[in-house]
Amino acid sequence: MSTSRDPLVVGNVVGDIVDSFPASAQLRLLYGGREMTCGSGLRPSQVASEPTVHITGGRDGGRAFYTLVMVDPDSPSPSNPSKREYLHWLVTDIPEGAGANHGNEVVAYESPRPSAGIHRFVFIVFRQVVRQAIYAPGWRANFNTRDFGACYSLGAPVAASYFNCQREGGCGGRRYR
């Protein structure tokens, strides 16, 4: 896919959160049984519960494990993201082809509740070289996905996706269905 049309580039996920990377796994996210597409708009009521997550890659014959990070790079507001990146969820040891519920939830899912502006909620997937102990950070605000990946020698991401969200009844020019 051309980088000019890549939704991760258009949505500034590449640049703000991660560097450009070659996708080598597929990330499928479903909220309430409805598949989320990259860059879609969802309301807080639609994302109140954690999504169903499926990660496949095929490189390791189904024996790979993955780490999933969910962050809000626009916290507390897109015009003043002083808490960038806010960590919403961290799951490790997700077996390839299985859901996140088969992994180790290091940081529990916190549902998005943006109070100002349209926020991007970003899912980043890393392939784990080995199963390893990954610890919860001491706080959720000012998490750094790049530093996290480097700290645990996870390498470049293998998949990513995001959705846009604003407070229920919020105005901002876009309506979510």
UniProtKB/TrEMBL annotation:
InterPro entries found in the cross-reference section: PEBP, PEBP-like_sf, PEBP_euk, Phosphatidylethanolamine-bd_CS
TM regions (residue ranges): none
Domain of life: Eukaryota
Entry's family note: Belongs to the phosphatidylethanolamine-binding protein family.
PANTHER family: OS12G0232300 PROTEIN, PHOSPHATIDYLETHANOLAMINE-BINDING PROTEIN
Protein name: Protein TWIN SISTER of FT
